[in-house]
């Protein structure tokens, strides 16, 4: 057993700076570049096909142009025999995918269809609204639960930590122009769950130590709590990362965005459960009185006259 | 100390047994099978069809593992895919149009498992391959149609009752009537008042009479609109079910989603274009008389023929019968060998047709084909950016205009419909019942069968690799305690599979990701407990007390942490569709089972290892 005593809280100003810088960068990127919305949210048509041998993307692009398409993307997907074609939504026609498949197949009959996806513009914008709303509802409900189980300062800390994680992941997706689709949204909600898990474990220990030992500075207690839970935090993050890496490398291309978001989420979430909550608690000047176990207000029965 | 009672052990074993039993069906591979159903969706497969199928198979010397009735179908299972294909073509050649013969994969779950409700996990479309469509029912145009026919209905009523109408017209979503005399005005108001009730007793119309110019405006009330919408969606749902049935797909899903959308999922469908052609024909039909040369231009409309070479013709505005009154249709040949379509209408449709044709023998009756199409134009939005604005419009074209030879009733035929193929395609659409309102595709996802298979393989591979690496790490780091955690972890995977199969939940690719994620996170509870035990030991407590304290003190934390994750996954379930819902389900089930295995399961194993023993030193 290693007894760690890292003075986490003495670095808290650096951590605050780092967090703020990352947040600012994320928000700037989100503001200026926006998210590279996947088909689920942008609407449009996507078609994935597999050729029997490596294929020249330029040729496919020419084919597309010759068939009257101008706003489209042709990229390899996973391997150089797999081709993904995305067509921006033009007339919301669900026939587009079939049309493209037909002339591609006419050009090379050995080619095989993997999938066609069409999302109408209205459905896309609905999913966008629902997704955004879902995040807010999840955060709101968690805020309530933590406030109910702990105390509002913890709830604020926890939700700040979650918002911090979510914004940074969104920022990275925006910065690197990774596709943001429904599976990534699912990953974000899973990150919320995961990061909260971490946060609660740390908060729980802080609460316990605040209640158990009197006469210490809040900073000292928080620091001790973080050290006590550190090995658990790291081990859990490590095992979760293990499975996520398995998913990233072996799970196939359709699930890659999901694993990416979660891997970043676990890393950022681990950091935020150490620093963000603690920082918030100190910022809100938590005291031992905040966490005193409320004395049960005994119900008194008066004898009936 | 640290012993569970026999009751607790029995409970753990029972939960585990349920998990194992209901996971078992997933180990039996699916068998190639054929599903046979009558083309007429109203007819269930019976003994005579069963006998016939068996006979055909015997005559072709194809051996089936089993042939039997299942739900409304006949299912024949085969030992090889070759036999399955041979059987399909043999059956199709004999049964022809009478029955739909579809390739299928049937689970080979043993009888004793099936009898207790066991079955393999359902696979989502992203794993099984297939098509997912989301269709939107165009309520606006259903309402518009209703208003049109309402207008005609009142005009006729007023004519019959000798009420003189100064003007009557449809204006956007309301009808406006003006009357010459006060007397006629009050008579009309009474007629409207009498009609003003829906089948559920609420007001049918929003009536706004105004004595100035004796004018009444009439619009459908909110409750009437809701009723019309429910009717249209319900009718379209039924029509789609019939159409899907004609495709012969096993376990299709046709469901209403929200107020005016319909989800169609066809697992395993390989020829998606054909499926789309049948389902996506957002066709409706209208029977109208050809306008006489004397008909006022207000009462007639000009339509093009579907066959461009034919030009156009004028039809009356009044719709005699729409496609929703069609009960059956089939294609055949007339006396001179040309293709024809035989049509049957329901009673109400038959009466209307009889009334309309009785005075009009010798005039022509037109059949209009109504299709919804999309058009887009470039416009400027509020920021001055060019955006594409989409409008859908309805195209009506004449598919047949034939002379009425006799008074038509509930059954009649249309000749001159083109080639036999065109006739049978038209009959198919008519037979499947026309739509009460046009529909359009708002979402479509097609997954090829090979991609589905690849997704399963990759998914299972990542589960195994993830599981093995976590197991290795836990063993290395916690030794004997790690072993206990690993057994619990393995039990957790079995429980997730078992409960998902039992609940009939659908496994999707994100669902597999959910299982992988659960594996990573499930050990968290154990890590928390073990770290706690280490701390207790470091404080100098004896091993038995340390184990006791470790478990009980970690419990609250584990509980809080899991409840919050559960909240996130419930929200995810609420907002997500298809595959994402699958992720939310596996994650939720995983959280619950992992709490059980990690807390109670691990405790049981540790108790068995250390309980009631005199341990001097605990290596953890």
TrEMBL record, chain B:
One GO location term (cellular component): plasma membrane
Entry membrane topology: Multi-pass membrane protein
Domain Protein translocase subunit SecDF P1: 234-290
SecDF P1 head subdomain domain: residues covered: 309-437
Keywords per UniProt: Cell membrane, Membrane, Protein transport, Translocation, Transmembrane, Transmembrane helix, Transport
GO MF annotations, alphabetized: protein-transporting ATPase activity
A Pfam family hit: SecD_1st
Protein export membrane protein SecD/SecF C-terminal domain sequence ranges: 440-607
Matches recorded under Gene3D superfamilies: 3.30.1360.200, 3.30.70.3400, Multidrug efflux transporter AcrB transmembrane domain
Locations listed in the record: Cell membrane
Predominant cellular place of this UniProt entry's protein: membrane
One Gene Ontology term from the biological process aspect of the record: protein targeting
Keyword Lipoprotein: no
Transmembrane regions: 458-478, 485-505, 511-533, 554-576, 582-606
Record family assignment: Belongs to the SecD/SecF family. SecD subfamily.
Purpose of the protein: Part of the Sec protein translocase complex. Interacts with the SecYEG preprotein conducting channel. SecDF uses the proton motive force (PMF) to complete protein translocation after the ATP-dependent function of SecA.
Assembly description: Forms a complex with SecF. Part of the essential Sec protein translocation apparatus which comprises SecA, SecYEG and auxiliary proteins SecDF-YajC and YidC.
Protein name, UniProt field: Protein translocase subunit SecD
Native source species: SAR86 cluster bacterium BACL1 MAG-120820-bin45
Lineage: Bacteria, Pseudomonadati, Pseudomonadota, Gammaproteobacteria, SAR86 cluster
